[in-house]
Amino acid sequence: MNNNIESFVKFEKIDKSYDGEILVVKNLNLNIDKSEFVTMLGPSGSGKTTTLMMLAGFETPTNGEIYLDNQPISKIPPYEREIGMVFQNYALFPHMTVNENLSFPLEVRKKSKSDIENRVKKALDMVELGDFGNRFPAQLSGGQQQRVALARALVFEPRLVLMDEPLGALDKNLREQMQYEIKHIHERIGITVVYVTHDQSEALTMSNRIAVFNDGVIQQLSTPDILYEKPENSFVAQFIGENNRMTGTIKEIEGDFCLVDLDGGGIVKAMKINVNSVGEKTQLSVRPERVVLKEESSADVNTFNGTVKELIYLGDHIRARLNVCNNEEFIVKIPNEGNINIEEGSNINVSWDAKDIRALDFN
Amino acid sequence: MEVIITEQILTTDGIPLKESLKKAERNNKIRAFFLVFPLLIFIIITFVVPIGDMMLRSVDDSQINTVYEKTFEEYKKWDKSKDELPPESVYKALFLEIAYGDKLQLGRALTRMNYSKSGWKSLIKKTQRGIKKIVKSGEEPLSYKQTLIDINENWADPTFWYAMGQMINKQTSIYYWNAIDRTFDQDQNVVMQNEDRRVYVSTWIKTFKVSIYVTFFCLLLGFPVAHLLASLPLRYSNILMIFVLLPFWTSLLVRTTAWIVMLQQNGVINDVLVWLGILSDDGRIQMVYNQTGTIIAMTQILLPFMILPLYSVMKVIPKSHMRAAQNLGAKPTIAFIRVYLPQTIPGMSAGGLLVFVLAIGYFITPELVGGKDGQLIGHWIAYHLKTTLNWGLCSALGAILLGIMLILYWLYNKIVGIDNIKLG
Ligand SMILES: Nc1ncnc2c1ncn2[C@@H]1O[C@H](COP(=O)(O)OP(=O)(O)OP(=O)(O)O)[C@@H](O)[C@H]1O
Ligand SMILES: [Mg+2]
Fold first, then answer.
1. Backbone angles phi, psi at A59, to 5 degrees
2. pTM for the whole structure
3. Which residue of A79, A88, A89 is in closest CB contact with B329?
């Protein structure tokens, strides 16, 4: 992360502690470009909301500075930051109709009556709720409330919108539908979005870039495909997508690769990512879909013998749980090509490319 | 569009669905009824019956009607436009009823008679003695009219006879008129009471005034406390809540007495003010045994009834609302006024209604700290209940109080909606 002055939002060395004992955000550096859709993804308690609240102005950083449009914002009160926000439970005002909710930010900005009317109507049309203006929030479904909250956060044309798990309260179908709607709105109006979720598939579908949070630290910040294909540490590998883990000790390092002596027996050749020296403990990670079945056994590198423990038929593929190198939880996804003839208890050979298995930090 | 189902839907057993449902519901209803039955009985005995009895008493005039049944019957035949005094038959009936009526009942009727005109009591008592002599002597009077007038000349005074006209119905509105300083004149017109007997209207006004003040101060003091309670972390708010509830665990009498100790001229507050040099020793303020004392003490005592409903409403207003409002560009004060305050209205109105209703009927505190000019209407109710035994007036005052509460409740329902009430 270089010090890019053109970044629209810039977190610089942000620390945050609520009680003076525990840092819930540690040395956070994050640059966000204009019109970018950046998602903060991480487990519960990892500091996502805290980060967002510091940007919105409801929490003050214990250390460091946040810049918006090259302006330090710590001195600007929340009501002057011109940042829209969609709260987790929408925070729609229950005593105001949808129209009044949307007019509120415009009224406090002393816009003219006709202007307000126009903008409210446009915003409601954008979220396809044109006919619902006179209802109260309690008379709307969860998805509709969500859309009103979105429209309200956008109606005053903020510089940037923040969304804190905006879809957390919706059921799966509605959530997926809303994901696309939010994404489309983002693409259409080109606004900068900072989005928080702990649902990885949501993050992968919607974002330009994802910042994976754990323990108040960004573990990796990159585009969805790189995050999935090239996790930089074992937390990210584990948090994003499915992954087979094996532990071992580095035996030999040769360029970008290394040889690892597995704890369960056997030697694996893997990409050297997050390890430095021989003798170090490491965690290996390989995606289930990168593991292939082999007909005949061979002594090739990265080829192992395994026992089938469980088979789950999933239509387009079959999910097999194997015991490989004393790892009972080794998962393989076998594409359904019509000629699979393995059974539970049978012995098969699996193998993978050395490029697809990554030697990461041990934790 | 309504869909008319012509075909009856049957359950699996072939019983019509509606009937089956009704049966199931009837069982539920019976069970529910038996569960509330003890409470129902309790409420009927302790609430509905006494209040009904009170309402009846406030208009009841039947006791005197049984004592002077014959007299009143004859009285009704009297044509007031023709004769100045009632005919002989009325005097005769009166004579006989006083002579042979039940002594106890006669005595009780006296009190009632005095309400319509003072002087009745002594008149009847003297007449009773006179009649007793005549009956003893055994001779029957030639003219009952003349005999009675001979016993006491007031029987020739038409104003007494006119006053009797107020009593001849089994129902009367006299108590209600009395309760607002009105009475009947000799032609049964409603007129003002004598100046020296006008106490109720001013007391009603004072009652309202004090109640409004108390409600207002409770709201003023209770709102910030409730807000604090609702926004503090649980372990602090629990401690604060104990302080709010503490008064509930202390006897009302103790608290009221404590206020006297605090507020009296040689009390704690005056002492402190003198000690601080704010007041001179002769300039001590009279803060108790007057309206000020009543308002101060009642505000403190009724405060929890304001705080609790407010708290329960504020507790469920998400903190994110204030944040959202600010995020949308509203300064904290505007966010408070436009977003927070409107959401507390159910609590404010519930608390306000509760405090006001409790305040207008309050008795002990004003009685103890109110002195002469801090008395509320409850004082007169108790006075007539215990001292004058004028239960009719006492019931009428109570019924008016009840009526006011019902009107307030109705207004409240109209304006805020009773479904919006939040009491905890
Ligand atoms: N107001 C607060 N006072 C004290 N500690 C807090 C406060 N808010 C959050 N924390 C702590 O800070 C840490 C980070 O909280 P934060 O709300 O940012 O997590 P999050 O990543 O948003 O989690 P989630 O996915 O559950 O929303 C947590 O350990 C939490 O307990
Ligand atoms: Mg959160």
1. -130, 145
2. 0.78
3. A79
